[in-house]
Specification:
alpha/beta; Leucine-rich repeat, LRR (right-handed beta-alpha superhelix); 5 strands
Amino acid sequence: MTQINSAVQLNDSGLISISRIIAKFYKTIEILILDIERNGITNGGMNSLCETLKTCNNIQFLKINLRINKINNDSLINLNKILIQNKNLSYIILDLRANSINHQLIKNFVQDIFLNKNIRVLNIIFEKQNQNIHFLKSLIKKQKRVHPRLVKTEIII
């Protein structure tokens, strides 16, 4: 078997195209894994993906690698709203490193995501900022006490 690896920049128009494909199968998707690292994705592409994810109510497992893109606070706020509303979603992995996201917003994101009572596993990866580490660690402990349904919660920095 021959494997060919080629680096192709996806950019916003590529993510919009992928979003359209996902939209065609929205009723049957239970697991969605998007590895879109290093693609120059901006809010335009993320907004399209978020609009599509609104309709994907059957997703239970969501993994999105957004590392090294051009995503900012607006995209994260949009994504957070979608993740809170999806009542079948129980497993989330997000890599947010190397984007233009305010660390205070990541704190809010982590707090808000637990409004979705079905989340059992949450892994979020982002850059280390010393002032946020203690807050996030205490938040995780608190969430595990308040929501014993949580199997695993990790904030990887």
